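Researcher: Sequence recovery benchmark, item below. Answer with residues only.
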């Protein structure tokens, strides 16, 4: 938000303060700034995926998986921080939210 503007109207001042508080809260929620990778074919072997975050990945949310297998980070990860190794409990297609 830009520099604070001052108004005589107390209601408007309270609204601006609430908006700034919400903005400050949202900036602290790490998984809101992420990327969605859809339709990745996964299996029990490692698959290297470019997460496109522009930084090291902090976490993963499985948005959708079909059929229903567990999906997660592999034990070994690539040295390039722009990629992650993912594996699943079986052959499946998944949509993943990296943050």
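Model:
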């Amino acid at each position: 938000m830009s520099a604070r503007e001052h108004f005589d109207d107390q209601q408007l001042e309270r609204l601006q303060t609430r908006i700034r508080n919400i903005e400050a809260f949202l900036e602290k929620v790490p998984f809101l700034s992420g990327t969605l990778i859809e339709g990745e074919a996964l299996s029990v072997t490692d698959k290297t995926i470019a997460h496109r975050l522009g930084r090291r990945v902090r976490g993963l949310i499985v948005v959708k998986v079909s059929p229903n297998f567990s999906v997660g980070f592999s034990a070994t990860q690539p040295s390039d921080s722009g990629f992650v190794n993912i594996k699943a409990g079986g052959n499946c297609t998944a949509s993943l939210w990296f943050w």
